[in-house]
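In the design runs reported in the main text, the only information available to the sequence generator was the tokenized backbone. The following block is the verbatim input for one such run; it is reproduced so that readers can re-run the procedure and compare outputs position by position.
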């Protein structure tokens, strides 16, 4: 039986427009907090296939979304390439040994070796495959990666950044080194995504969360071309697996979007009308409610009606325009999902 979500990714008609939420397995759910506490910390949770599978399933049962997204993090990739990842309480991710020169990069392991170390991710997927297949709701499993550019920002800055000044210094003064980093990460990601597919994911999404840090003129050179390289590698070998691209905050680049992939994720700062006009004929669109509308059920319903009117229930997947925040009431997340399903039903 084909899955509703996979059908929608390929632009087929579905009884209603499916919905999921970026960061749907996470801190707004008390049930997630309980499992994280059992694991001790976030990284332990990522490394524990049984617990990671458990929190992946939670939003299906609690919130009622139409797709599951593998519980993990984009930063396990550089971690397994040999960088030292930790999560500092209240501050987010840290690498103690950021890349500053070619020798730092050369110390990191490459494609096959790094991708082979992410066994806990593949074990989580295999477990989820069994658990999802045993249900009768035909829920698809989404695997994911960070885009090489978004991963590189953490590898170079050593942490999250508001200014990206260290990366940008490299971009404008030593672009050759930045490209070398991006190419090495791209090779790892291609094999990593392939192994996720072989382990049982139905769909993959590439998150370029920090796309907006690059000036539009240079976005293709430093990010998009690498995302397309990954997508096209996967589409060639696994044409039945939909690929979703999510470059956050690049409305000025919409005219120049190209590549063989299936779904374009629209962030909340890009009007759906504009995305539909520029890309709707070529790609299925995913998105894009501003996640902070989740603080008000009334404003949530208003946005869903608007997005649904623009898309007309065709070639569309409902989602937020970025991740759900930890202080959103669970009832409001449930309201979002039910309203998307109700309003789009035909
Ligand atoms: O979407 C899901 O539910 C699946 C799980 C998932 C996580 N991270 C779990 C997580 C996914 C898809 C990600 C992707 C991710 N990780 C991105 C791209 C998506 C985006 O939101 O833009 C990025 C940039 C990261 C890096 C990262 N991981 C940061 C910056 C942080 C800390 C910031 C924060 O929100 O606290 C994380 C930690 C993280 N990843 C958490 C979760 C549930 C919170 C950790 C915790 O439980 O303490």
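Verbatim output:
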């Amino acid at each position: 039986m084909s899955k509703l979500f996979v059908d929608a990714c390929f632009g087929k008609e579905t009884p209603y427009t499916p919905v999921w939420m970026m960061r749907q397995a996470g801190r707004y759910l008390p049930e997630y907090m309980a499992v994280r506490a059992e694991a001790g910390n976030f990284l332990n949770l990522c490394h524990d296939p049984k617990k990671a599978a458990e929190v992946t399933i939670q939003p299906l049962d609690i919130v009622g979304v139409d797709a599951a997204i593998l519980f993990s993090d984009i930063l396990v990739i550089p971690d397994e390439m040999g960088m030292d990842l930790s999560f500092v309480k209240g501050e987010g991710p840290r690498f103690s040994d950021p890349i500053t020169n070619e020798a730092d990069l050369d110390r990191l392991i490459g494609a096959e070796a790094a991708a082979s170390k992410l066994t806990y991710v593949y074990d989580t997927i295999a477990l989820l495959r069994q658990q999802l297949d045993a249900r009768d709701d035909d829920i698809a499993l989404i695997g994911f990666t960070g885009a090489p550019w978004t991963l590189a920002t953490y590898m170079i800055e050593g942490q999250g950044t508001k200014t990206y000044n260290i990366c940008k210094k490299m971009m404008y003064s030593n672009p050759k080194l930045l490209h070398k980093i991006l190419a090495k990460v791209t090779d790892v990601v291609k094999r990593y995504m392939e192994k996720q597919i072989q382990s049982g994911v139905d769909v993959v999404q590439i998150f370029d969360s920090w796309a907006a840090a690059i000036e539009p003129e240079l976005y293709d050179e430093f990010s998009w071309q690498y995302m397309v390289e990954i997508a096209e590698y996967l589409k060639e070998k696994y044409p039945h697996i939909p690929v979703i691209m999510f470059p956050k905050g690049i409305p000025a680049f919409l005219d120049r979007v190209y590549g063989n992939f299936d779904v374009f994720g629209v962030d909340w700062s890009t009007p759906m009308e504009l995305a539909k006009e520029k890309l709707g004929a070529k790609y299925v669109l995913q998105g894009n409610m501003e996640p902070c509308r989740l603080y008000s059920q009334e404003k949530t319903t208003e946005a869903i009606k608007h997005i649904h009117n623009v898309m007309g229930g065709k070639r569309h997947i409902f989602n937020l325009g970025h991740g759900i925040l930890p202080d959103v009431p669970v009832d409001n997340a449930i309201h979002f999902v039910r309203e998307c399903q109700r309003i789009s039903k035909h």
